[in-house]
Amino acid sequence: MDITNLTSEERKALLEQLKADETAAQQKKRDDQEAYKSLVDETVKKAFPKLIGISEKLAKNKANIRESFKKAIEIKREVYGVKDLQQSHTFTDSLGQFKITIGVYTIDNYDDTVDVGISMVRECITDLGKDAESKVLIETILKLLSKDKKGTLKPSRVLQLEQLGNQLGNEKFLEGVRIIKEAYKPLESKSYIRAEYKDETGSWVNVPLGMTEA
User: Fold this and answer.
1) Please, which residues have CB within 8 angstroms of residue 105's CB and are 6 or more apart in sequence?
2) Which domain holds residue 148?
3) What pLDDT is stored for residue 24 in this prediction?
C-alpha cells in the first residue's frame, strides 16, 4: 500500500486502526500472561496437597522400616560385637536378591582438645632434621594437619598421621595423634534408607526412595 496516495482522512483512519491493532495485541499479551499465572496458581494448589501426602507417607513408611530393623540391629551388636559407633547397617535376604541399608549421615566434628593434639604434633616437627628428606616429611605432616574450609580435619588424614607416627616411633607424636582421634565427635545429620535388588544380569539396582530420584 502506497500511503502517499491516501487522503488525510484515510491516513488518519489507518493510524487509528494501527493503534487499535497494537492495543489489542498488548491486551492479548496481558490476558495470556494472566491466564498463565492463573493456570500455575491452580496447578500448584492442586499438586501441593498431593506432594505433602507423598512426603508424609514416605516419612511414615521409612520410620516403620527403621523401627522394624531396630531389633535386628540390637541383636547384631550383641551377637557380633558391633560397636554402637557404626553409622550404617546393611541387611540382605538369604538368597542375596534384596539389600536394605539403614544408616545415618554424619558431619565431621571435633571438640576443643583437638587443638592440643595438633600443637603436640607440630612441636614434634621442630625436632626433625633439616635435610631434604625431613623437609618433605614436614610438608606432608603440615598438609595432613591442615583443616578444610569448614575448619575441621579429615578423619582419613588423622589415620595417615597415625601411620607416620608409627613409622617415626615418636611417642609424643603418637600421643598428639591419639588426642586428635579422641577429640573426634561426629554429629549426626540425618538418617537414610537405601534399598537395592539384583536384576537379571546379577547387578545391584537402586530403588528410588526420594522425590528427586523417582
Assistant:
1) 87, 188, 189, 190, 191, 192
2) 114-182
3) 83
